[in-house]
Amino acid sequence: MEKRHRIFIAINLPGDIKKQLFAYSEKWPELPAKWIVKDNLHITLVFLGDLTDQELGDACITVKEVAQKHSSFSLNINKVLYGPPQKPAKGGFAGQAPRFIWAEGEKSKELSDLKNDLEKSLLEKIKFAPESRGFTPHITLSRISAFGFKAIDPEERPEINENIDLIFTAESIEVMESVLKRAGPQYTVIESHALGE
């Protein structure tokens, strides 16, 4: 059987931004959450799923071509909250526990154009299912245990909705591989492509 690679295209974060976001892992010790290791913090642009060696090669070429057509741009991470957003219900999370704590960024034309161009170009070469819901840049900080969350008295659940102001320049996009290990996923950069000047 041919080996497959679990691949996604991402924007990695500068070290100082990762450090500031990772600091939130100390903030809500009562939450049944598994925090993402600092080095794994990133913004996923396109999730491609399990690719063959041939498809991975095609993806790398395509990402390089797309990167050259887009300039570097500024990103503003401005909120830490539960994700993904849910339709309002009485008492907040009435039916479902949140799945994540994540940091959300401002939408921008540059980011949307880059994501759309990546999806369109990659779909010409590879079969994958683009996300149907609208794209808001976000960084997953932790995964929440639904069972553990529901076990906390609703009055005791922390309100997580913090405004932050972390700005950095996205200068490259990375083809990343996710390998599931016992301790959690391990991410490796396969290729990094600088955005055009």
Walk me through what this model shows.
By secondary structure, this protein is α+β, with helices and mostly antiparallel strands. The protein has one domain (5-194): Cyclic Phosphodiesterase, Chain: A. The protein is 23% helix and 39% strand. The strands form two sheets. Strands 2-6-5-4-7 form a five-stranded antiparallel β-sheet. Strand 8 and strand 9 form a beta hairpin. Helix 2 (53-69) packs antiparallel against helix 3. The protein is globular. The model has no long low-confidence stretch (mean pLDDT 90).
Number of helices: 4
Write down the CATH class.
Alpha Beta
Q: What Rg do the Cα atoms give?
A: 18 Å
CATH superfamily: Cyclic phosphodiesterase
How many structural domains in the coordinates? 1
H/E element sequence: EHEEHEEHEHEEE
What's the shape? globular
The total count of strands amounts to 9
Question: Which residues form runs of ≥5 with pLDDT under 50?
Answer: none
What does the average pLDDT come to?
A: 90
Order of strands side by side in the largest beta sheet? 2-6-5-4-7
> Which secondary-structure class do the elements indicate?
alpha+beta
The biggest beta sheet is recorded as: 5 strands, antiparallel
Distance between the termini: 42 Å
CATH topology: the name is Cyclic Phosphodiesterase, Chain: A
Strand content: 35-45%
- CATH architecture descriptor text: Alpha-Beta Complex
The amount of helix comes to: 10-25%
How would the blueprint of this fold be written?
Elements: E1 5-12, H1 15-22, E2 33-35, E3 42-51, H2 53-69, E4 73-83, E5 100-105, H3 109-123, E6 138-144, H4 146-151, E7 161-170, E8 172-181, E9 184-194
Antiparallel strand pairs: 1-3, 1-8, 2-6, 4-5, 4-7, 5-6, 8-9
Helix pairs in contact: 2-3
